[in-house]
Amino acid sequence: MSNPFRYAIVVAAVLLAVLVAAPACQCQSEEPTKHEIFVESDKDGDPYQWMPIKTITVQSGDTIRITVKEDAAWFLIPDDRFTLLEGGCEWVASKSFTAFKVKEGFAVLRLDECDSGAEAADELHYSVLVLNANGKWDYVHGNNPPPGMIVPPRKR
């Protein structure tokens, strides 16, 4: 066997491995869902001044548009599977959390993980801190449980 022939066999084997492995890593077989989260003040709110943020169910590949109407807000999500697609600033991602800031605008995130390997749904509770008009930081959820995301296991 000559060297060019061996090289062609190695290239063909690598190409075959990539073609076989690629479909196994596809995250989404359905069209991704676009979710929206709004951080806004509740003028009539008593005792808290922020509108509640509802829990959403997010699949791999889904996007989340977060809109902060009038103030600056910090988000701390205890998961590393998110990517910032647009907007937002001061993005920090580690092995255990994702943190970012949205200042009088919006951010668009995407849940990237193909498969967490979990048998049950992951329930993520995240924190939202808002700089209010008085220059003080408030948790949007007050004394209530923080907003959440449910990430179901991938259908096999």
Q: Care to describe what's here?
A:
This protein is mainly β. The protein has one domain (28-151): Immunoglobulin-like, CATH 2.60.40. It contains one helix and twelve strands, in the order αββββββββββββ. The protein has one helix at residues 3-21; strands at residues 34-39, 56-57, 63-68, 72-77, 82-87, 89-93, 98-103, 106-111, 122-125, 127-131, 137-139, 148-151. The protein has a five-stranded antiparallel beta sheet with strand order 6-7-4-10-11, with no helix packed on it. Strands 1-3-8-5 form a four-stranded mixed beta sheet, with no helix packed on it. A three-stranded mixed beta sheet has the order 2-12-9, with no helix packed on it. Strand 6 (89-93) and strand 7 form a beta hairpin. The longest helix has 19 residues, at 3-21. The radius of gyration is 21 Å and the shape is elongated. Mean pLDDT is 80; it is low at 16-29.
Give me some keywords for this one.
156 residues, 12 strands, 4-stranded mixed beta sheet, Immunoglobulin-like, mainly beta, elongated, 38% strand
Q: Determine the N-to-C terminus distance.
A: 43 Å
Uncertain segments: 16-29
Instruction: List the strand order in the largest sheet.
Output: 6-7-4-10-11
Q: Secondary-structure element order, as H and E?
A: HEEEEEEEEEEEE
Strand content: 35-45%
Oligomer status: single chain
Q: What coarse outline follows from CA principal-axis ratios?
A: elongated
Task: Tally the helices.
Answer: 1
Number of folding domains?
1
Average pLDDT for all residues: 80
- Radius of gyration (CA) equals 21 Å
Query: Mind telling me which CATH architecture this is?
Result: Sandwich
Question: Total strand count, please?
Answer: 12
Q: Which CATH top level class fits?
A: Mainly Beta
Major beta-sheet overview: 5 strands, antiparallel
For this structure, the CATH topology is Immunoglobulin-like
Q: Roughly what percent helix?
A: 10-25%
Structural class by secondary-structure content: mainly beta
